[in-house]
Design goal:
The structure is a single chain. With about 200 residues, this protein is α+β, with helices and mostly antiparallel strands. The protein starts with 8 loop residues before the first strand and ends in an 11-residue tail after the last strand. Bound molecules: 2-oxoglutaric acid. The site of 2-oxoglutaric acid has 11 residues, from strand 7, strand 13 and strand 14. Keywords: Dioxygenase, Oxidoreductase.
Length: about 200
């Protein structure tokens, strides 16, 4: 790669109109958000955010060793999925699950990782939609360690193109000055029934 290669992402500012942001935010007040506890080197750590996974039946997802069963799509969220497939068919037609992360304030965060779980269809795009507080989303090349920063604000849609997860990782760092909540939706294409094979 060249020294100045940019990450394979497209940022669409204010993709979701304010009225739809408002309806989705209202609906999110009833999400069954959970704080997952993960085990690292024998010690238990609650993750610094809460999460819920909505998906088509059979599209379960594994997060740090715990299998998370698919909950059915809430009404407003299902409409957003439809909107994505209409506006961005090239990327969104095969979406069948969405991970929702809720950050109470700037102390909640997500560490460096790639979305490269085996149940994600290889080279599929991941679409990230933000509501609430604006936060920095940082992308880092796995080899050169070059970093790029994207400020994600309410209604913004970030497309992480196919192939991104192989070469790049991303994180949502803590931000001391952020004192209001944020929701992030990552719409994904999952291999249906991937985990049923192991049950
Ligand atoms: O909240 C964000 O913008 C990041 C979410 C994320 O990295 C993920 O769901 O894998």
């Amino acid at each position: 790669m060249t020294q100045h290669e940019s990450p394979p992402v497209t940022l669409i500012k204010q993709f979701l109109p304010p009225k739809l942001c408002q309806l989705l935010w209202q609906e999110s007040q009833n999400y069954p958000l959970e704080k997952i506890v993960i085990q690292v080197f024998g010690k238990y750590h609650p993750i610094p955010r809460t999460q819920v996974w909505f998906a088509d039946s059979g599209c379960d997802y594994k997060y740090s060793g715990s299998l998370i069963r698919a909950l059915p799509w809430p009404q407003e969220l299902a409409k957003i999925r439809l909107l994505l497939t209409q506006k961005l068919p090239e990327y969104a037609t095969h979406i069948n699950g969405v991970l929702v992360n809720h950050y109470v304030d700037g102390q909640d965060c997500m560490g460096w990782h790639s979305d490269n779980e085996p149940e994600i269809v290889k080279d599929s795009a991941i679409l990230s939609l933000t509501l609430g507080a604006a936060r920095d989303f940082v992308v880092r090349h796995k080899v050169t360690k070059q970093k790029f920063n994207y400020l994600l604000a309410e209604g913004d849609l970030l497309i992480m193109h196919g192939g991104m997860q192989q070469a790049w990782e991303h994180a949502l760092p803590k931000r001391a000055r952020v004192n209001s909540p944020r929701l992030n939706y990552t719409f994904r294409h999952i291999k249906p029934d991937f985990y049923q094979k192991f049950n």
